[in-house]
Write a structure and sequence with these properties.
There is one protein chain. The chain is α/β, with parallel strands linked by helices and 314 residues long. It folds into two domains: 2-173, 3-Layer(aba) Sandwich (Rossmann fold), CATH 3.40.50; 176-298, Nitrogenase molybdenum iron protein domain (Rossmann fold), CATH 3.40.50.1980. The protein is 45% helix and 11% strand. The protein is globular, with a radius of gyration of 22 Å. The structure holds zinc ion. Residues 61, 126, 192, 194, 271-272 line the site of zinc ion (ZN).
Length: 314
């Protein structure tokens, strides 16, 4: 009897604290990876302050947010993240937010099963590599913004549609330039498996040197198999990534050289992070334009050096 009397007020206090915390947001929108941050800014325009956590050249699979970043995530009015375990080390902090009923949304989840690559429980998280899929994610971000700030819903919807049209133009460009690569050379070899969606969308075989996550080291046998494959198929170039160490790529190039086949580095691709803030490559469209144009030209196809809107050399 005595016990329950003591417990009751404590439970009440606990519930009260949770509610207060849920209300204590600063109205900002926090995003995890740049590809979500940029799309959110494009759609939100000047109506919202968007804070992106994982910056240029940074690997989201292993990223540990700092104390002040955790604070920003806790205080934000709305948090938008990719999901599908991309933000592998941020799961508990995102979950704790959801438990306090603060708005948080995994914008790349909830797509139709047919869109996803990989097994049902752990699909490949790199959905931004297919512009037609990322356009659907942009639609989802637009919906989240409208729900968060209904007064400006019409504006978000309009800006979302305009942005989706640009994504569609770049998608069309990719569909046009990829087939210019000679058939036999339509193979993209890169440091980790970030490009499967790009491969499926634009008709190029993708081989990663590492597995899906950047956390596992590539095995020696995998490297040897890959070297043999490159030599047999006379693949002219492989690629490095801005957010992944170059070591394993160099091992492959040296292995091919020992077998008398020259493989060059076809360029640096943006896999899980965009380029420097304020540059064209520091936007989602610029990052994808760079990737598409670089791959096509390095593998013997022909794409305009300046990319689909002649902005790559600015
Ligand atoms: Zn990745």
């Amino acid at each position: 009897m005595k016990k329950s009397l003591l417990l009751a007020p404590l439970l009440f206090l606990g519930a009260c604290t949770n509610k207060d915390e849920a209300a204590k947001t600063d109205g900002t929108i926090v995003t995890t990876v740049g590809m979500i941050g940029d799309v959110t800014r494009q759609i939100a325009g000047d109506k919202q302050e968007v804070i992106n956590i994982i910056g240029e050249g940074t690997d989201p699979h292993t990223y540990q947010p700092s104390k002040s970043e955790i604070d920003k995530i806790q205080k934000a009015g709305l948090v938008l993240y990719n999901g599908h375990f991309l933000e592998g080390k941020m799961g508990s902090i995102l979950k704790s937010r959801a438990e306090r009923d603060n708005p948080v949304s995994a914008v790349a989840e909830g797509l139709a099963e047919v869109e996803l690559i990989g097994n049902g429980d752990h699909p490949d998280p790199h959905l931004w590599m297919d512009l037609s899929i990322w356009s659907k994610v942009a639609g989802k971000i637009g919906d989240e913004l409208a729900a968060f700030d209904p007064d400006n819903a019409n504006q978000y919807q309009k800006q979302c549609q305009e942005y989706q049209e640009k994504l569609n133009d770049l998608h069309t460009y990719a569909l046009m330039v990829f087939p210019t690569i000679p058939q036999k050379q339509r193979v993209l070899v890169t440091a980790h498996d970030a490009f499967s969606y790009l491969g499926r969308a634009y008709g190029i075989e993708v081989r990663g040197i590492q597995g899906i996550s950047t956390e596992s080291e590539a095995g020696t046998k995998d490297i040897n198999d890959l070297v043999s494959y490159l030599v047999e198929n006379e693949i002219p170039a492989i690629f490095i990534e801005s957010s992944v160490p170059e070591k394993s790529v160099k091992t492959v190039i040296e292995g091919a050289a020992e077998k008398g086949h020259t493989v060059k580095i076809g360029g640096k691709l943006f896999s899980d992070a965009m380029g420097p803030a304020g540059t064209y490559q520091g936007s989602y469209i610029g990052m994808m334009d760079h990737n598409i144009t670089t791959i096509v030209n390095a593998l013997g196809g022909s794409a305009p050096e300046g990319g689909f809107q002649n902005k790559l050399n600015d």
